[in-house]
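Q: A small favour: would you put together sequence and structure tokens for a protein?
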Amino acid sequence: MNSPAISARRIGVLLVNLGTPDSPQTGDVRRYLNEFLTDGRVVDMPAAIRYPLFQGLVVPLRAPKSAKIYQQLWDADRGSPLLFHGLDLQEKVQAALGPGYVVAFGMRYQNPSIEKALDELRAAEVERIVVLPLFPQYASASTGSVQEKVMDIVKDWWIVPSINFISQFATEPGFIASIVARGRAELDKQHYDHVVFSYHGIPERHVKKGDPTNYCRFGSCCDTLTDRNQYCYRAQCFATSRLVAAGLGLAPGQYTVSFQSRLQSRLRDPWLQPYTDEALKEFPAKGIHHVLAFSPAFVADCLETTIEVGEEFKELFEEAGGTHWQLVPSLNSEPQWVEAVADMIRRK
């Protein structure tokens, strides 16, 4: 007697990026900032302080200024780069993985939401889910927040499938090779005196809170990535930089690792150093006049890459006497990066 055929169950894949306003208008930017800056993993203050401070003071002041910057970033036809590059990546990863997978895309803040993306996977009756937060280096404020949100949503499902998280891919060969290829394309065009790897900053206390053995000293301990500091954001950033630099044939003195986007002026708390905006001002006096800049904490072009690194830092560098500042484009949905993502998922 023949057994009835059992239909193949597919694997669900959830790609997640940070988020974006629905439009560059002040109201939509305010809603985005309210959700983002009141996340307890982003601003780790007690809720009784965090909500009134940010919803009542910081966000109302910041939203109109941020809206003007988003208007510079916005594509007239496709909208937010972080969104359309994410949707492009979803489509191409789906094609690379084939019919045995269902790939969904969501944002931690605003739309398309993680909840909507998970609902798509649940409706597809996937056997299990692989969650890939699109943040190469683990930080509680990014990857940790995505993981918490996913688990908060699925806790209400009657049937919860197996869920695997890819917590970081700072040293993944495919990721490194994709960045090296992007950098090599720029280096082939002209000579650069120096390379900068600029990462999104986080408060030093975030690193210490994830360091139960008190190993971190914010110094040479980050020069190697070990079991003891494998989730140290700073150590991961340095590890990514070393591997990319090696792929480009750079000696240690030919590149700088630094951190951007700090809110120290408001929160009066030290963030990871050195600060990119301060380091670059010193380059011309050292004979560095042509700089190639990477943003390896981001896999898609966004405000922090295109505007902050690509335009604002360029202006600061030139004001200090620099000649040429060039941003290496993010990986977005380049074929080599698509295959690297698909490979990580297959191995999970």
About this structure: Strands lie at 11-20, 101-110, 128-133, 162-165, 194-200, 255-260, 290-294, 324-327. The chain has two domains: 11-169+335-347, 173-327.
